[in-house]
Write a structure and sequence with these properties.
alpha/beta; Metallo-beta-lactamase, Chain A; 3 domains; eight-stranded mixed sheet; seven-stranded mixed sheet; 12 helices; 19 strands; 18% strand; elongated
Length: 430
């Protein structure tokens, strides 16, 4: 028997499907849907059946998901030691991405077989000084840059150097700062350090202009200061901007890496050496010495070398230079204290690589260390500096220096404008 309903207006009995009352003709209200336990159960069963069908026919089944979980790296909390005093919150699983290629390690990478290497390159720039330092963490320092002959910059580029963190000018002679101008114009530099000594040459003016144009922070250091190079530190053992001789204004730096230490001396002569012996004698000891003033007899006194006690001594000089560098007296003094001597004129660029315990010497040319066994007494021409010739043709020292450089500079000096071999012509002129 079919169920009936009644009209809400006149009370007449009607069929449940009626939309209008057959007695009064009024439109009937639609019955509201009533949710019952039976209908809810039927809907839930239908939803479960639908999910089962979709899971069976769509890709990405549970086996694939399990494999993905196994491939994921464990969180830090899962890999930490059981006696750890802290718990790291588990990180969300990474989304699936294409595997990235492994980085290529260059041939001169400082991290090899788990060791961290410091590299010091004494660059062959001819008759001049330039030293590149590369730390295990990739920080770079450049001490001096030789003449403006492009050799220092070319070497940096060949080594893949694209920035310099620390640039140091030991003193403002052209054979030390000329190449720095080229580097400042080509590469970003983090900071520039010097003694503050000035010089009246075009090269020095161009250096100041390059520092200003590149907006490089400029610092003047004194003895006792330090220069940071990443986790390493240069100690400033000497810096005298008011020294009578420009060579003696040189910034002298010591760098220590583990048990291996380096002493970089610029062109410091015996007067500066005596000052260091009086003030920082206990800090002079070094495994490797960059010999001052290209191996000239004006530097490397017996007392100074006795305090340094280097195992390796390296000078920078141009092959067949006009100054007789290195002087035989200096090589003999280095031999007497047991140092093995290398020079850029004989060996090309010299690279020292150290892990802080051991060190390795690599040279550009395969030649034995420099030695003068049983050498005779030094000829006066090797040791006695010559006076500058008559410079009356020039009104100022800057004019004489420009002429001197235009005619080959220290490497030639056909007019003998630089008799004392310090890279500066006609120094008595204003």
């Amino acid at each position: 028997m079919s169920r009936q309903t009644s009209c809400s207006f006149c009370g007449a009995l009607l069929q449940p499907s009626a939309r209008f009352c057959s007695m009064c003709g009024k439109r009937l209200a639609r019955p509201r849907f009533r949710l019952t336990c039976g209908s809810l159960l039927i809907s839930l069963i239908g939803f479960i059946l639908l999910c089962s069908v979709l899971n069976a026919i769509l890709p990405g089944n549970t086996a694939t998901s399990s494999t993905s979980r196994q491939d994921r790296p464990q969180s830090a909390a899962m890999t930490a030691s059981s006696n750890s005093s802290f718990v790291t919150q588990p990180q969300p699983a990474p989304t699936t991405q294409p595997a990235s290629p492994k980085p290529t390690i260059p041939h001169n990478d400082t991290a090899i077989a788990g060791k961290q290497f410091l590299e010091v390159h004494v660059i062959d720039v001819g008759q001049g000084d330039s030293i590149l330092i590369r730390t295990p963490e990739g920080k770079t320092a450049l001490i001096d840059g030789g003449y403006d002959n492009g050799l220092a910059l070319a070497y940096l580029r060949a080594q893949g150097i694209n920035h310099i963190d620390v640039m140091v000018a030991s003193h403002p002679h052209a054979d030390h700062i000329g190449g720095l101008v080229e580097v400042l114009n080509a590469l970003p530099v983090g900071g520039f350090w010097t003694s503050g000594a000035s010089h009246t040459t075009g090269t020095y003016e161009r250096l100041l202009d390059a520092i200003d144009a590149a907006k490089v922070p400029y610092y003047e250091v004194q003895r006792g200061d330090t220069i940071p190079l990443g986790r390493l530190t240069f100690e400033v053992l000497h810096s005298d901007p008011n020294a009578y001789e420009l060579n003696n204004t040189s910034v002298v730096l010591r760098l220590k890496y583990g048990n291996v230490s380096f002493l970089f001396t610029g062109d410091a002569e015996q007067a500066a050496e005596q000052e260091m012996l009086a003030t920082v004698r206990n800090q002079l000891r070094a495994t490797i010495l960059k010999v001052a003033h290209h191996g000239s007899h004006t530097s490397s006194s017996d007392q100074f070398l006795a305090a340094v006690q280097p195992a390796i001594a390296i000078y920078s000089a141009g092959r067949n230079n006009n100054y007789g560098h290195p002087h035989r007296k200096t090589i003999q003094a280095l031999q007497r204290i047991g140092a093995t001597v290398y020079g850029t004129d004989e060996h090309g660029t010299i690279i020292i690589t150290t892990d802080g315990v051991d060190y390795h010497i690599q040279t550009g040319y395969d030649r034995p260390p420099v030695a003068y066994p049983g050498s005779p007494a030094i000829a006066p021409s090797d040791n006695t500096p010559q006076r500058d010739r008559d410079c009356s043709d020039f009104a100022t020292q800057a004019e004489a220096q420009a002429f001197f450089l235009a005619n080959g500079g220290p490497a030639r000096d056909p007019h003998r404008l630089d008799g004392d071999g310090d890279g500066i012509a006609c120094e008595h002129l204003p």
